[in-house]
Design goal:
Mean pLDDT: 96
Structural class: alpha/beta
Radius of gyration: 19 Å
Low-confidence stretches: none
Strand content: 15-25%
Number of strands: 12
Helix content: 40-55%
Number of helices: 12
Shape: globular
Oligomer: single chain
Length: 292
């Protein structure tokens, strides 16, 4: 097959591309950074350098492709993020239509069924709606959990304050996922025949926030590391003081509130909370300790 992968050599792409090239597929990887070209080629893929917001570039890159892994960049810019994300989805959709691709695997998120109030996930809701209207295209909406790797952002908090936390309680259950498990699921879906639209959840573990603190704490030699539930205002101000742009901080605060009230997890739970990834929280904690 000819398969095009967006997302360059990020946490997913660096795992996905070798799976596909190893299976004998002809892979093109899209990146906005020309410096990635050699690294992409070293994995046996071709590089297409350009902006994923440019539908003409995308249409050229998608031309002749059997299947696409469609990943819109997170946090496009420091402002108007939901609008920018949605517009990137529109550019993808226009390119998919223009190129005649019949199979798309879209990286979405747990909670993308909810129209609003979910922070950055709202942009993926809009893109799912756009892709659902594509004619004669089979789309797998790959709804991923909360990336384990996001917890690397908490290393300064752990080192400076001796705590980890967010604006939801230690009892809140979080669908978690490792990027390598996303890559494995995406590879499976990309290699399947086009057969209509479907939702597939990809979650590696489903655990209370308290377990995140205890697993990471045990791995880094801080077994008493507590999970602290911040107020929305404390979470927002903490991120802003750490240098996160205010709009992004506001979106992540909204996402935490939606985890707290269960809106993000609701459809996942109603579909029997499928946990199919193989890399569990304690496995990731070992990786965390190596980076700490």
């Amino acid at each position: 097959m000819k398969i095009t992968v967006t997302g360059s050599l990020g946490n997913i792409g660096k795992n996905l591309i070798p799976i596909l090239t190893g299976a004998g597929h002809e892979v093109t990887a899209i990146s906005s950074n020309i410096e990635r070209k050699a690294d992409i080629e070293s994995l046996g893929a071709k590089a297409a350098i350009g902006s994923v917001s440019d539908s003409n570039f995308l249409a050229t890159a998608f031309s002749g492709t059997d299947a696409i892994f469609a990943m819109t960049p997170p946090n496009l810019g420091g402002s108007h993020i939901i609008e920018n994300t949605t517009n990137a989805g529109k550019a993808f959709a226009a390119a998919i239509t223009a190129s005649g691709v019949k199979k798309v695997v879209m990286l979405s998120s747990v909670g993308a069924d909810v129209p609003g109030g979910t922070g950055p996930i709202e942009g993926l809701y809009h893109i799912e709606q756009i892709y659902s209207q594509l004619g004669d295209v089979s789309v797998t909406f790959l709804r991923a959990g909360y990336f384990y790797t996001n917890y690397y952002n908490d290393i300064p908090l752990i080192k400076n304050a001796g705590i980890i936390g967010s604006n939801f309680p230690a009892t809140a259950l979080i669908p978690l996922v490792h990027p390598a498990d996303i890559a494995a699921a995406a590879a499976e879906e990309l290699q399947q025949p086009a057969a209509g639209n479907k939702v597939r959840y990809i979650v590696s573990d489903y655990r209370p926030a308290a377990d995140v603190a205890s697993a990471i704490g045990a791995a880094i030699g801080k077994p008493e590391l507590p999970w602290v539930a911040f107020t929305d205002e404390e979470a927002l101000q903490g991120m802003v003081q750490a240098g996160v742009p205010e709009e992004i901080a506001g979106l992540y605060t909204s996402m935490g509130a939606a985890i707290r009230n269960g809106a993000i997890q609701q459809d996942f739970v109603q579909t029997a909370a499928p946990v199919t990834g193989v890399i569990k929280l304690e496995d990731f904690a070992k990786e965390y300790a190596a980076a700490f």
